[in-house]
Amino acid sequence: MIEIHEVTKKFQDKKAHVTALKHVSFKVKQGEVLGLLGENGAGKTTLLRAVATLLTPTDGTVTVAGHDTVKNPNAVKKKIGVLFGGETGLYDRLTAKENLEYFAMLYGMSKHETKVRIDELAKMFGMRDYLDRKVGGFSKGMRQKVAISRTILHNPDIILFDEPTTGLDITSSNVFRELIHQLKHMEKTIIFSSHIMEEVTLLCDSVAMMHKGELVHHGSLEDLYEEEGSRDLNYIFMSKLVRGNIHHAS
Protein backbone atom coordinates (compact mmCIF):
# COMPACT_ATOMS: atom_id res chain seq x y z
CA MET A 1 0.00 0.00 0.00
CA ILE A 2 2.87 2.39 0.87
CA GLU A 3 6.40 1.76 -0.40
CA ILE A 4 9.26 4.04 0.61
CA HIS A 5 12.40 3.21 -1.32
CA GLU A 6 15.82 4.73 -0.63
CA VAL A 7 14.33 8.14 0.15
CA THR A 8 16.78 10.97 0.82
CA LYS A 9 15.74 14.56 1.41
CA LYS A 10 18.18 17.48 1.53
CA PHE A 11 17.37 21.10 2.34
CA GLN A 12 19.54 24.09 1.54
CA ASP A 13 20.41 25.96 4.73
CA LYS A 14 22.05 29.39 4.74
CA LYS A 15 25.48 27.83 5.08
CA ALA A 16 25.17 24.24 3.88
CA HIS A 17 22.90 21.36 2.85
CA VAL A 18 20.91 19.74 5.66
CA THR A 19 20.06 16.08 5.11
CA ALA A 20 16.72 15.39 6.80
CA LEU A 21 16.30 11.84 5.44
CA LYS A 22 19.05 9.39 4.53
CA HIS A 23 18.21 6.41 2.30
CA VAL A 24 15.02 5.46 4.17
CA SER A 25 13.25 2.29 2.94
CA PHE A 26 10.28 0.34 4.29
CA LYS A 27 6.79 -0.81 3.33
CA VAL A 28 3.39 -0.51 5.00
CA LYS A 29 0.81 -3.15 4.07
CA GLN A 30 -2.90 -2.53 3.55
CA GLY A 31 -4.74 -2.51 6.87
CA GLU A 32 -1.52 -2.08 8.85
CA VAL A 33 -1.11 0.50 11.63
CA LEU A 34 2.50 1.66 11.80
CA GLY A 35 3.92 3.82 14.56
CA LEU A 36 6.63 6.26 13.51
CA LEU A 37 9.00 6.91 16.40
CA GLY A 38 11.86 9.34 16.81
CA GLU A 39 13.00 12.34 18.79
CA ASN A 40 12.41 15.88 17.51
CA GLY A 41 14.40 16.42 14.33
CA ALA A 42 14.61 12.71 13.51
CA GLY A 43 12.87 13.20 10.15
CA LYS A 44 9.39 11.85 10.97
CA THR A 45 7.41 14.85 9.72
CA THR A 46 9.63 15.21 6.65
CA LEU A 47 8.95 11.58 5.76
CA LEU A 48 5.20 11.96 6.28
CA ARG A 49 5.21 15.08 4.09
CA ALA A 50 6.95 13.12 1.35
CA VAL A 51 4.29 10.40 1.56
CA ALA A 52 1.58 13.08 1.44
CA THR A 53 3.08 14.61 -1.77
CA LEU A 54 3.92 17.84 0.09
CA LEU A 55 7.67 17.34 -0.33
CA THR A 56 9.61 15.95 -3.27
CA PRO A 57 12.42 13.54 -2.30
CA THR A 58 15.91 14.56 -3.37
CA ASP A 59 16.52 10.90 -4.19
CA GLY A 60 14.44 7.75 -4.00
CA THR A 61 10.73 7.13 -4.53
CA VAL A 62 7.50 6.94 -2.54
CA THR A 63 4.60 4.91 -3.92
CA VAL A 64 1.11 5.11 -2.41
CA ALA A 65 -1.59 2.67 -3.56
CA GLY A 66 0.44 2.06 -6.70
CA HIS A 67 0.91 5.76 -7.52
CA ASP A 68 4.25 7.57 -7.49
CA THR A 69 3.93 10.65 -5.25
CA VAL A 70 5.96 12.79 -7.67
CA LYS A 71 4.64 11.51 -11.01
CA ASN A 72 0.98 11.26 -9.98
CA PRO A 73 0.36 13.35 -6.85
CA ASN A 74 -3.33 13.98 -7.56
CA ALA A 75 -4.10 10.27 -7.55
CA VAL A 76 -2.31 9.95 -4.20
CA LYS A 77 -4.19 12.90 -2.68
CA LYS A 78 -7.51 11.22 -3.43
CA LYS A 79 -6.46 8.20 -1.39
CA ILE A 80 -5.12 9.89 1.74
CA GLY A 81 -6.17 11.90 4.77
CA VAL A 82 -3.47 13.96 6.51
CA LEU A 83 -3.05 15.72 9.85
CA PHE A 84 0.26 17.37 10.68
CA GLY A 85 0.85 18.26 14.32
CA GLY A 86 -0.35 21.75 15.17
CA GLU A 87 -1.19 22.53 11.54
CA THR A 88 -4.93 21.95 11.73
CA GLY A 89 -5.63 23.53 8.33
CA LEU A 90 -8.81 25.13 9.69
CA TYR A 91 -10.20 28.58 8.95
CA ASP A 92 -10.72 30.68 12.07
CA ARG A 93 -13.54 32.80 10.62
CA LEU A 94 -15.63 29.74 9.79
CA THR A 95 -17.55 27.59 12.25
CA ALA A 96 -16.50 24.00 12.84
CA LYS A 97 -19.41 22.84 10.69
CA GLU A 98 -18.58 25.31 7.91
CA ASN A 99 -14.96 24.13 7.93
CA LEU A 100 -16.03 20.52 7.53
CA GLU A 101 -18.56 21.40 4.84
CA TYR A 102 -15.89 23.30 2.93
CA PHE A 103 -13.47 20.37 2.94
CA ALA A 104 -16.29 17.97 2.07
CA MET A 105 -16.95 20.09 -1.01
CA LEU A 106 -13.26 19.88 -1.96
CA TYR A 107 -13.45 16.10 -1.59
CA GLY A 108 -16.46 16.02 -3.94
CA MET A 109 -18.89 14.73 -1.32
CA SER A 110 -22.64 15.20 -1.80
CA LYS A 111 -24.65 17.42 0.57
CA HIS A 112 -26.45 14.42 2.06
CA GLU A 113 -23.23 12.45 2.52
CA THR A 114 -21.62 15.52 4.11
CA LYS A 115 -24.47 16.02 6.60
CA VAL A 116 -24.51 12.37 7.64
CA ARG A 117 -20.73 12.25 8.03
CA ILE A 118 -20.52 15.47 10.05
CA ASP A 119 -23.27 14.21 12.37
CA GLU A 120 -21.36 10.94 12.88
CA LEU A 121 -18.08 12.71 13.66
CA ALA A 122 -19.71 15.32 15.91
CA LYS A 123 -21.22 12.52 17.99
CA MET A 124 -17.99 10.51 18.00
CA PHE A 125 -15.83 13.40 19.24
CA GLY A 126 -18.42 15.20 21.36
CA MET A 127 -18.46 18.31 19.16
CA ARG A 128 -22.20 18.96 18.92
CA ASP A 129 -22.14 21.82 21.43
CA TYR A 130 -19.72 23.90 19.37
CA LEU A 131 -20.31 22.85 15.75
CA ASP A 132 -21.85 26.25 15.01
CA ARG A 133 -19.17 28.31 16.76
CA LYS A 134 -16.27 29.94 14.93
CA VAL A 135 -13.04 27.99 15.19
CA GLY A 136 -11.02 31.12 16.04
CA GLY A 137 -12.20 30.96 19.66
CA PHE A 138 -11.58 27.24 20.14
CA SER A 139 -9.20 25.67 22.63
CA LYS A 140 -6.33 23.56 21.27
CA GLY A 141 -8.18 20.36 22.06
CA MET A 142 -11.38 21.52 20.34
CA ARG A 143 -9.42 22.50 17.22
CA GLN A 144 -7.68 19.13 17.21
CA LYS A 145 -11.00 17.27 17.28
CA VAL A 146 -12.24 19.24 14.27
CA ALA A 147 -8.91 18.69 12.50
CA ILE A 148 -9.06 14.92 13.05
CA SER A 149 -12.64 14.97 11.74
CA ARG A 150 -11.47 16.88 8.66
CA THR A 151 -8.76 14.27 8.08
CA ILE A 152 -11.15 11.31 7.95
CA LEU A 153 -14.22 13.14 6.63
CA HIS A 154 -13.98 11.63 3.12
CA ASN A 155 -13.29 8.09 4.39
CA PRO A 156 -9.76 7.82 2.91
CA ASP A 157 -8.00 4.46 2.45
CA ILE A 158 -4.72 5.77 3.86
CA ILE A 159 -4.37 8.08 6.86
CA LEU A 160 -1.29 9.96 8.07
CA PHE A 161 -1.34 11.37 11.60
CA ASP A 162 1.54 13.47 12.98
CA GLU A 163 1.21 13.70 16.79
CA PRO A 164 -2.61 13.39 16.56
CA THR A 165 -3.40 13.45 20.30
CA THR A 166 -1.51 16.68 20.97
CA GLY A 167 -3.80 18.96 22.98
CA LEU A 168 -6.46 16.32 23.60
CA ASP A 169 -7.71 15.52 27.11
CA ILE A 170 -7.79 11.96 28.41
CA THR A 171 -11.36 11.32 27.26
CA SER A 172 -10.72 12.63 23.75
CA SER A 173 -7.45 10.69 23.51
CA ASN A 174 -9.36 7.53 24.34
CA VAL A 175 -11.94 8.38 21.66
CA PHE A 176 -9.10 8.78 19.18
CA ARG A 177 -7.65 5.41 20.15
CA GLU A 178 -11.04 3.79 19.65
CA LEU A 179 -11.20 5.49 16.26
CA ILE A 180 -7.90 3.88 15.26
CA HIS A 181 -9.30 0.48 16.21
CA GLN A 182 -12.38 1.16 14.08
CA LEU A 183 -10.30 2.29 11.12
CA LYS A 184 -8.11 -0.78 11.45
CA HIS A 185 -11.21 -2.99 11.43
CA MET A 186 -12.16 -1.24 8.16
CA GLU A 187 -8.75 -2.22 6.68
CA LYS A 188 -7.50 1.36 6.58
CA THR A 189 -3.73 1.82 6.32
CA ILE A 190 -2.41 4.18 8.98
CA ILE A 191 0.93 5.78 9.82
CA PHE A 192 1.07 7.95 12.89
CA SER A 193 3.94 9.50 14.74
CA SER A 194 3.78 9.75 18.50
CA HIS A 195 5.94 10.39 21.54
CA ILE A 196 3.52 8.39 23.67
CA MET A 197 4.90 4.86 23.79
CA GLU A 198 1.76 3.49 25.47
CA GLU A 199 -0.26 4.76 22.51
CA VAL A 200 2.01 2.99 20.04
CA THR A 201 1.98 -0.22 22.08
CA LEU A 202 -1.82 -0.27 22.22
CA LEU A 203 -2.55 0.69 18.62
CA CYS A 204 0.25 -0.38 16.29
CA ASP A 205 1.05 -3.58 14.46
CA SER A 206 4.55 -2.40 13.60
CA VAL A 207 7.01 0.42 14.21
CA ALA A 208 9.56 2.40 12.24
CA MET A 209 12.19 4.02 14.46
CA MET A 210 14.16 6.99 13.14
CA HIS A 211 17.25 8.79 14.39
CA LYS A 212 18.91 11.76 12.67
CA GLY A 213 17.19 11.01 9.37
CA GLU A 214 18.03 7.32 9.29
CA LEU A 215 15.87 4.26 9.83
CA VAL A 216 17.03 2.51 13.00
CA HIS A 217 14.46 -0.27 12.99
CA HIS A 218 11.39 -1.42 11.08
CA GLY A 219 9.30 -4.45 11.87
CA SER A 220 6.39 -5.87 13.86
CA LEU A 221 6.07 -5.03 17.53
CA GLU A 222 5.97 -8.69 18.54
CA ASP A 223 9.18 -9.46 16.62
CA LEU A 224 10.81 -6.43 18.25
CA TYR A 225 9.79 -7.54 21.74
CA GLU A 226 11.14 -11.03 21.10
CA GLU A 227 14.38 -9.70 19.63
CA GLU A 228 15.00 -7.36 22.58
CA GLY A 229 13.69 -9.64 25.33
CA SER A 230 11.51 -6.83 26.65
CA ARG A 231 8.05 -5.33 26.13
CA ASP A 232 9.12 -1.90 27.38
CA LEU A 233 9.01 0.08 24.14
CA ASN A 234 10.50 3.21 25.65
CA TYR A 235 13.51 1.24 26.92
CA ILE A 236 13.91 -0.55 23.58
CA PHE A 237 13.78 2.72 21.64
CA MET A 238 16.37 4.47 23.80
CA SER A 239 18.55 1.37 23.75
CA LYS A 240 18.53 1.22 19.96
CA LEU A 241 19.48 4.88 19.70
CA VAL A 242 22.42 4.34 22.04
CA ARG A 243 23.54 1.23 20.16
CA GLY A 244 22.94 2.79 16.75
CA ASN A 245 21.43 -0.40 15.36
CA ILE A 246 20.84 0.98 11.89
CA HIS A 247 21.84 -2.31 10.32
CA HIS A 248 18.81 -3.96 11.99
CA ALA A 249 16.39 -1.88 9.93
CA SER A 250 14.61 -3.96 7.32
Q: Which architecture would the CATH scheme give at its second level?
A: 3-Layer(aba) Sandwich
Question: How big a fraction of the residues is strand?
Answer: 25-35%
Order of helices and strands: EEEHEEHEHHHEHEHEEHH
How many domain regions? 1
CATH class: Alpha Beta
Q: Report the strand count.
A: 10
Tally the helices: what do you get?
9
CATH superfamily caption: P-loop containing nucleotide triphosphate hydrolases
User: Class by helix and strand content?
Assistant: alpha/beta
Can you give the helix content as a percent range? 25-40%
Query: CATH topology, anyone?
Result: Rossmann fold
First-residue to last-residue Cα separation: 17 Å
Q: Name the strands of the widest sheet in spatial order.
A: 6-7-8-3-9-10
Which ranges are low-confidence, i.e. pLDDT below 50, for 5 or more consecutive residues?
A: 246-250
Shape: globular
* Average of pLDDT: 91
- Biggest sheet: strands, sense, closure? 6 strands, mixed
**CA gyration radius, whole angstroms:** 18 Å
Pfam families: ABC_tran (PF00005)
GO molecular function: ATP binding; ATP hydrolysis activity
Family: Belongs to the ABC transporter superfamily.
Protein name: ATP-binding cassette domain-containing protein
